[in-house]
Amino acid sequence: MSVVNESEEDIIIRNYRTSDYIATLEILKELQNQYDIGLKEEKWRETSGLRQFKPNLKRITLIAEVKSTGEVVSMGMLEAVKNNIGQYIGYLNNWATKKDFIGKGVGKILADKAIQILKSWGCESVRINMAYEGDRKLIDIFGKVGFHPIIIVLEKKFE
Amino acid sequence: MNGSPLSEFFSSSSADKNPFEELAVVYVLYFDEARGHLPLLIYPDDRYKDDKNFMRPIKYHPIWFLSIDEQEVLDHIDLEFKGYTFFGKKFLTTSKRIKRRAGLEEDTPETIILIVSLPNNLEIFGDYLIKQLTEEIRENFESKLFEIIESEIGKDEIIKSPKIKKMIENGNIIKEELRELIHKICTNFFSSVIKESDSSSIKMQKAISYLALKGIDVGHIESEDYKDSFSSIQLFDPTSVSEPRYIKKGSFSIIKINIIEDSQEIEILVRNNKETKMNDLNLKITHVKEYFEKEVMNEHIDVWFPKEILLFISPIIPHINEYLLIIMQAQNKERLLSQRINLDLLKKIKMKNIR
Question: What is the rounded end-to-end Cα distance, in angstroms, of chain B?
């Protein structure tokens, strides 16, 4: 089976709407099954993906939609957080693409848009949070576009 | 003194008609040669003139005990009492009233005392107000005040002859004219006095903030064209660009407010109701502390898409339950939404819904 790349013309990148709740929930469930991102359905509310404004924090959920069908095929959350020394650092979190669209370049279109947004917000750098036990190949893929591992985050879940 | 605070006396329903009624009380009094210090008129309401507690600071105000000569040097005499300042002024007016004490002639002038009481926060206005009242009353009622005095004395007569009745009637008409004049001066006073005020005075800014809290319209202070307006005062931050008050209703609306008790935050969902996108906006959340506006949150929104709902998460300050949310254009400061948020009320509604 040949892989047909989605072009930028075929995909609309837009911000999350409350009507995207069901579609995003499905994508997040897929992500949860694979990486245990700690998703609790009752906590991902209709309004959770809206653009958020909070002192020292900006957050937006980007949606990739197929122009012809309106299907939501990928999502990613980005946030800009002001650190202790006054710098804004951008983060890409919970980046997920529907199984059928993996490898078709949708994620890259989404990530390019996200980086543009983070730059416009005044971020000095951008970080990607990845599952430690995730696919190591991803590190190489991100390495090709300038992302390199700098920190390891350790986490302990409270009972 | 065991009486009620003075403010309690001003909680009458008449206060709704004129917001200044609870700010300024004007007493016109005279010295009665037979009975001493007596009130002629109390604005806004005469009914407290027989209330001993209410009248105590008036009857024993030091203005009574100063001669006109001494007073001219001092302009007016103040007495501070229970959170209020009582400004006193004494002056003489012509009279044709037959006096009831030996040695006094028919044309012996009437001794008039004018007292204005203001909350201490507004005492800075007292000088101007009493000066204006004195000038206006003297100009318009110089030769009429004795007729009100005659009428008041006549009211105490047990047998009222037709002549006394006529005198009372005449006095009442003049008294109403006097009341109307005081009403007019008081109603217009606070906006007019701000015209000539010094914006560098913290005391003045505090007084204006007090007026704003009492719901008095001090909107011109925030107007963007304040330089052309009658006032030189700017509230809160004299260096910042001022904000016009007019609001285009309906451009934005608050859809929902959630209080997050754990993190001491509120989530506010706001929708752009327009069919067009809005650029370059600011959303501010403020509260008032000690008469000054404090900013809790100020977020810039570069673009707000049509019908888009945005989520604003603001910290809340312990023990502060009232906030003001303002959405405005960043450039010209035009206000697009201004909404008061009362957390107590929200909590009550939430509790009611749970039950």
Answer: 46
